[in-house]
């Protein structure tokens, strides 16, 4: 499920937890939500993967900002497809400053490393 659909469900239900507590027949009444989007919502494999990801984030002490948090960048709140979570490292002020974000995988290629360190 993508960010747009997930945020639509969360906004309608009030929280991510409430999305999972709702019956699919109720969620299908939300404009723009179809059975394809909800197909794997209750699948234990995805639920277990999400728990494993959360545990990894906590074990590694990874800082993040949720799209409904007060410190989520206001300029991103206006983007329909902005990410639900922003992961960050270090003391970053995301309000009112120009920043560079890097989108990619956890296993960076040598090309990606070289690109990041180019003057």
From TrEMBL:
Residues 65-116 form the Smf/DprA SLOG domain. InterPro entries: DprA, DrpA_SLOG, RuvA_2-like. It comes from the Bacteria. Pfam families: DNA_processg_A. SUPFAM superfamilies: RuvA domain 2-like. Belongs to the DprA/Smf family. It comes from Sediminicola arcticus. This is DNA-processing protein DprA.
């Amino acid at each position: 499920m993508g960010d747009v659909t997930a945020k639509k469900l969360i906004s309608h239900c009030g929280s991510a937890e409430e999305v999972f507590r709702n019956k699919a027949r109720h969620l299908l009444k939300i404009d723009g939500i179809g059975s394809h989007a909800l197909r794997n919502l209750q699948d234990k494999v995805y639920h277990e993967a999400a728990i494993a990801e959360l545990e990894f984030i906590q074990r590694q002490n990874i800082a993040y900002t949720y799209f409904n948090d007060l410190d989520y960048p206001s300029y991103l709140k206006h983007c329909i497809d902005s990410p639900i979570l922003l992961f960050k490292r270090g003391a970053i002020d995301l309000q009112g400053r120009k920043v560079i974000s890097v989108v990619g995988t956890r296993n960076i290629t040598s090309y990606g490393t070289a690109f990041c360190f180019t003057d």
